[in-house]
Amino acid sequence: MMKILALILAAGKGTRMKSSKPKVLFESAGKPMIDYVINAASSCGADAVNIVIGSGAEDVKSHIGGRASFSLQENQRGTADAVLAAENAIQNHGGRVLILCGDMPLVRPETLSKFIEAAGNHAVSFISVSVKKPFGYGRVVRGGGGSVIKIVEEKDANDQEKKINEVNTGIYFCDSAVLLDRLSRVGSNNAQNEFYLTDIVKEGAFAYKAEDENEFLGVNNRVQLAEASKALWKRRAVRFMEQGVSIFDPDTFYADEETEIENDAEIYPNVYLHGKNIIKTGSVIMSGCRITDSVIGENCEIKDNCCITESKVGAGSSVGPMAQLRPGTVLEGKNKIGNFVETKKAVLGSGSKASHLTYLGDAEIGKDVNIGCGTITCNYDGIKKYKTVIEDGVFVGSDVQLVAPVKIGKGALLAAGSTITKDVPADALAMTRADMKIKEGWVSRWKSTKKKDK
Description:
By secondary structure, this protein is an alpha/beta fold.
């Protein structure tokens, strides 16, 4: 079996990002760019990964952890110098070296696999692609019969060479011994006084010409970062639609890689699905929703502008519009959470509902409970959080405050406007309310006294 070391170049300063953060750690469609490159390398058969680091080295090492080994490029003297920084790793591994760029999150594992297969026994191979706008890229100069003569960088190219639209992508596949041998002869006699990795092809190389130029976008600034993210989100939208999910506007669909969506779900425009979500069959997510690390059960309706985080929404439930489910919320099923309702560490049994303007925090609520408008579980005394327990079948009237810790027994009724500070037995009515007084004719008399005061 062929031994392949994936060598990822990630030492650049990324000055055009205008940030102290290492460029490869910027997120593209939900995760750092370098993570896509590592995953692609592993998926195409690399048995080891070495990352060449430089600027922000400790941050990159901290993020990657044990997924790769590292080589340090102390001075930024060009791409050939970056590869030579990993000389020990290349010698120790032997076999073949797959050289990748840490700022190219769009490269597909399938493309790398095809490239490796096509490269065969060629000692040095690279991927080229034809582009509409070749400015800034190294041009692939071919001779008779289509053989590669050289790759010439933009600043070193003459007017005729600048017309070439076949460019180098920066991805190579080389025999490790041949790679190190050729690198030993690379000089810096060029417009940038740098050691170009492209010079290794002068002694002979195979060029695998890829089809999609967009796959090889190198991210150098935040405009290109947004372009890469857009492309990744669009890929995911296409994949979900092919699997039977209705996405009404793929251009405004934003889902992280770990999110799963089952067939017959419907996703409206401007929905954000962050982290590891599961959206089950038949559910509808309407516009403006942000869902993070949550499970949405079958046949749920998440109405416009809801925020759901680390929560579980049971089958047949309705949430929103404009509701917030905070971490620890569990809706057991057939629940209704209406507009301007906020929940946190709240479990609602099957059929229970809170239709509007309510806060339920640190609460255990049974089945078929009605929570009236304006209800608050008062769970915090300034020092500790306390729990409210509401058993099955309770009716909570409007504008009720439950001062935790408190327990409401099965089938009880809490009258509107009450402040509940004690446990309420099952089947009981609890009411805290001042006596209502009616003073007939009071308004006219009051107005009369006010007129006399003028």
